[in-house]
Design goal:
Layout lengths: L13 E4 L10 E5 L4 E3 L7 E7 L2 E5 L2 E6 L4 E2 L1 H6 L6 E4 L3 E7 H10 L1 H30 L13 H6 L14 H5 L10 H10 L1 E5 L4 E3 L7 E7 L2 E6 L5 E7 L4 E2 L1 H6 L6 E4 L3 E7 H6 L2 H29 L8 H12 E2 L11
Antiparallel strand pairs: 1-2, 2-9, 3-8, 4-7, 4-9, 5-6, 5-8, 10-17, 11-16, 12-15, 12-17, 13-14, 13-16, 15-18
Helix pairs in contact: 2-3, 3-9, 3-10, 6-9, 9-10
Length: about 350
């Protein structure tokens, strides 16, 4: 599919006041017939919608990649963070939506921060749930291709990563401001909000060969790579591993596990002496006001980028009803393990 900037960016259908309009006047109701295109790939993302009735399908590169149903938000990441739609959304049945314009969202952020932050949290939860579902989908596709490690004891490789340590990083880490500068914030971000995030981050040194985390651990920390490189691997039986990705400076690692408390799906090991900035659950909970909002908006856009990369990889690799090859599955798994600054598709519009 190609971008078509001349497409209408507002869904075409029967518009009415939403049922909650008396209390939420910025929301409007839209009814569409089965088969109607709600949004198209390449359109400007200027609306957010909640499904009141019916179901929709999301298509990327000619393949259906997911569905959403009654009560769920759709278009949340693009609407909050700006940019263009990364797929087509089509009604599977007659569908009723409650729709709010991006401009109204921005006004809500200034005039009703409690409502805005609540809606942002709901959007982030929805994207986090999609990350979890995508991880499960990749695990199902790879069943039989990647031998599972023993559930009774850590693999030999896991035990080795916990023991191996080489050269340690010298000196102090680069200032946290330098690491934060790699994030897709854009010129509109407030320095004070970034400073609040910076205060919550804690430095951690990694020696060459040291594990940042090990596959199977509970994922409750978020990491921003300040120097060095991380190798991401997935165990293949007891003594072998597949390389999923190499992450460099500016990578944000472990967002899905951080938000959902999922077990780590891979192991991250320092390829060279490295520094990371980490955020634990206590630091995240202590963030308030604009700092917490900015971090949630950043997580939303970065997870959306990671998921879109996976959708494109799997859609392009499918041949009829056949699943993608192992090489593609491993690359897709690597995409979910970390966001890379070099892969940013667009800067947030705040």
């Amino acid at each position: 599919m190609t971008d078509k900037t001349d497409r209408p960016t507002t869904p075409q259908g029967r518009w009415d006041l939403a049922p909650e309009a008396e209390f939420k006047p910025d929301w409007r109701a839209l009814t569409l017939e089965a088969g109607a295109r709600i949004w198209g790939h390449g359109e400007v993302a200027d609306t957010l919608a909640r499904i009141v009735r019916g179901s929709v399908a999301v298509w990327v590169e000619g393949q259906e990649v997911g569905r959403a149903h009654e009560g769920e938000l759709i278009g949340e990441a693009a609407a909050f963070c700006g940019g263009r739609r990364m797929g087509d959304v089509v009604a599977l049945s007659e569908v009723e939506l409650s729709v709010i314009e991006r401009e109204a969202l921005e006004v809500m952020g200034r005039t009703d921060p409690v409502a805005y932050d609540g809606l942002l949290k709901e959007a982030l939860d929805a994207v986090g749930a999609r990350v979890e579902a995508t991880n499960q989908r990749l695990a199902e596709i790879s069943a039989g291709l990647i031998p599972a490690p023993s559930p009774r004891r850590p693999s030999s490789l896991s035990k080795l990563w916990l023991q191996v340590k080489g050269d340690a990083p010298t000196g102090a880490p680069a200032p946290v401001e330098a690491a934060l500068a790699s994030l897709p914030v854009g010129k509109g971000a407030h320095a004070a909000a970034l400073a609040l995030i910076g205060v919550a981050l804690k430095p951690r040194a990694l020696s060459k060969g040291e594990a940042l985390f090990v596959e199977g651990e509970e994922g409750r920390e978020l990491f921003l790579l300040a120097s060095g490189e991380l190798q991401i691997t997935k165990a293949a039986g007891e003594d072998k591993a597949h390389e999923l990705a190499i992450l460099g400076i500016g990578a944000l690692v472990g967002a899905g596990g951080f938000l959902r408390g999922m077990s780590r799906g891979a192991t991250a090991v320092a390829r060279s002496p490295a520094w990371v900035w980490s955020l634990d659950q206590a630091g995240y909970a202590a963030l308030g006001g604009r700092g917490r909002r900015l971090l949630d908006e950043l997580l939303l856009v970065m997870l959306r980028d990671q998921l879109n990369n996976v959708d494109i990889l799997l859609s392009r690799a499918r041949s009829g009803n056949e699943d993608p090859a192992l090489e593609v599955i491993l690359k897709a798994m690597g995409e979910l393990e970390g966001w890379r600054s070099a892969d940013v598709k667009q800067t947030m519009k705040l």
